Amino acid sequence: MAASTTEIRQLIRADRTQPDSAAVAHVLTGTLFLGVGAVAAALAFISMSFPGFIPLGYGIWRAIAMLGLLVGFGTLTLVGGAYYVLPRLTGARLWNEPLAWLGLVITAATTAAGMIVVAVGWGDGREPFGLPWWLDIPLFVGIGIPPLVAVLTLRNRTESQTFVTIPFVVTGLGGLPLVYLFGNLPSQTPVASTTADLFSGSAYLVLLVSIAIGLGHYAVVKQTEKPLAGRQLSHIAYWSLLFGAGWFGIAQIAGGPAPGWLGVIGAVLGLGLPVGLIAATANLLATLQGQWREDDHVEPVAMLSVAGLFFATVVGVLAALAGFRSTGNLVGFTPYWEGIVFGFALAVVPLLSGAAAIQAIPKMTGRGLYSQQAAARTVRLIVYGSGALVVLLVAAGLVAGYSWAGGSFTGAYSAVGEAWAPATATARLFLGAATLAGLVGALGAFSLVSVILRTLTEGPVTTQEVLVAKEEE
After folding, report:
1. Which H/E stretch holds residue 10?
2. 430 vs 215: CA distance, rounded Å
3. Whole-angstrom Cα distance, residue 358 to residue 369?
4. Could you report the per-residue pLDDT of 231-242, keeping only the tens digit for each?
5. Vertex 425: Cα angle to 420 and 426 (nearest 5)
6. Nearest residue to 175 (alpha-carbon basis) of 114, 232, 237, 246
7. Peptide bond into 422 cis (omega under 30)
8. Whole-angstrom distance, CA of residue 87 vs CA of residue 200
9. pTM above the 0.85 mark?
């Protein structure tokens, strides 16, 4: 690697051959989608508590929010992070950078079009994005390009050692189009299509988290200049997340018409999610050894990574606990699972992706972090807001489940028809408080958007990394 200083305008040019141009463009585009997704999430929370106050309704705003947060932001930003680390870990130039740009254009255009299509009521209503089949195809193509670029970049490697980041990134990128395809295959029965939707939606989330953890291994080590504590812990995290991906989606209907054996498998394999997250968190803490401060302030990359992994571990444990049939029957079809999904989408993915982006942007653009205080404020807003959101939605789900079960067992009421209002009255109180917490979490997402964009445009000049290909030395 060679060091130089540069202006960001020199990185993204018409010829698109500048170093890291595709990576920078992915991060920039993803950041813009984070703002859109945060707005949609805020409107979804308001619509959840006050159904007649916001047009379109909760289901449509939720689908738009998932498109913005998971595809527009999560996928594009993490793909940009992958394009950043692969040349540095392999010693080879990014393979076919124009194709990488094409993947960005297809994915971003399809995501933006999908938001409009879902908003006007042309979506198919399937989890988690609700896109019609004629938008599923280009989105599948768009997210299918990054694994091709990654694998062929890896094929040209000059480094003999395989760093722990590479399996997380390459496997995650390859898994995204596969689980998306699985979730959108035509099904003959509603049960089969619902099962596929829930599995693929939750697997997509976990794969994004897995990619972010892999990028975090690189970001923390490079930023703090501390060696990774243990490859074994990273291997445990990798395999546990790989086998645990998707099963908390199945758990949501374990008490419904799904086969009994599917619920048992989901409960057992679903334990891989918290195990993998605990292993990744332990590895990070052992690497940092409690030293994540720089002089008089907290190091932002370490701070975002620690917060993201702790948050992910808590949400992963909640998801695994609800995977068992006794708990699943209680909280099925309640806001409990919305707390899990939004915990990952509005807190874990932004925190971990933000850590990778904040470490990568100065190296790619020659622009240092805009403000340490703004980064710390972002973490507080996301953790406090989204943390309260998860707690309140989980509480609402437990209260609703116990209310439904209590009324049924005692014969006092059945939570349908006229009895629906009294049966859900207590849960609605928690939902109202969750709306306020969700607005704070969305504000935290906006704060992250501000930090990244102001770093790109107003950050102090610093040293930029430029890959010098071996054949050009």
Report:
1. none
2. 36
3. 7
4. 889 999 999 999
5. 135
6. 246
7. no
8. 30
9. yes
Rounded to 5 degrees, φ, ψ at 90 are -110, -20
pLDDT at position 450, please? 93
Give the pair of three-digit tokens for residue 115: 């938001």
Within 13 Å and on the Cβ side, how many CA atoms surround 444? Answer: 30
Burial class (CB in 10 A: 0-12, 13-18, 19+), 186: exposed
- The C-alpha atoms of residue 116 and residue 439 are separated, in whole angstroms, by 23
Q: What would the two tokens of residue 192 be?
A: 């089969």
Query: 394-418: per-residue pLDDT in tens?
Result: 999 888 888 777 666 655 666 666 6
CA distance 203 to 207: 6
Lowest mean pLDDT among 119-123, 176-180, 222-226, 468-472: 468-472
The residue to which tokens 């008089």 are assigned: 296
Give the integer Cα–Cα distance in Å for 184 and 90: 34
Average pLDDT, the chain: 86
Residue 302 pLDDT more than 60?
A: yes
Q: What's phi and psi for 461, nearest 5 deg?
A: -70, 135
For residue 156, the SS3 value is coil
Q: Which residue has the tokens 């430029």?
A: 466
Residue 299 phi, psi dihedral angles, 5° rounding: -70, 125
Q: State the residue for tokens 């406090």.
A: 384
